[in-house]
Amino acid sequence: MFDEAMEIGLKGLRACGEAACFFEHKKEKELVEFELMIGRKLDLPVTALCAYDVNHAKSLEEKLFFGLIKAHGLVVTSSFAQQV
Predict the structure, then answer these.
(1) By C-alpha distance, which of 59, 1, 3 is closest to 27?
(2) Which terminus of the chain faces fewer neighbouring Cβ atoms within 10 Å, N or C?
């Protein structure tokens, strides 16, 4: 997808993803590992929006929750504003 965007003259790529499937299949640890890895590996002009159900995020163990937060450059939320 990135190569195609560059071929047609775009300067970067925007992507959006939703992570409910990780929670539905009890793969929270793998999700955090993936998020931490992808943030280090991508050295491309890509902007990504990761969407999480607040109830799923609240269900994480503390270590995983803060790992998920650490994996993202910016976290926007209204529900956690007073809790984090």
Answers:
(1) 59
(2) N
Q: Structural domain tally of the chain?
A: 1
Q: According to the model, what pLDDT value does residue 66 have?
A: 92
Query: Residues, the chain, total?
Result: 84
Residue 79 lies in a domain: no
What would the pLDDT profile of 65-84 be if each residue is shown by its tens digit? 999 988 887 888 776 555 55
3-state class of 22 per DSSP?
Answer: helix
Q: Which helix (H) or strand (E) holds 24?
A: helix 20-24
Enclosing domain of residue 40: 2-70
Does residue 50 sit within a domain?
A: yes
CA distances 25 to 15, 30, 53, 69, 82, Å, are 23, 10, 15, 21, 29
* Residue 17 contacts residue 48 (beta carbons within 8 Å): yes
In angstroms, the CA 60 to CA 34 distance is: 15
